[in-house]
Write a structure and sequence with these properties.
The chain has about 40 residues and is an all-alpha fold. The chain contains 3 helices and no strands. The chain is globular and about 30 Å long. The two termini are about 10 Å apart.
Length: about 40
Amino acid sequence: MKASQLSDAQKAFILKQGDEGLSVAEICRKVGISQATYFN
């Protein structure tokens, strides 16, 4: 399996955005990842 290209800080930012109520599609657009990557 390929290693993640996201840093721990980026992962924390993504999760925090989700806790704040942003939609998955909006978070993915901001970070530049696909929804499949988000759910993995």
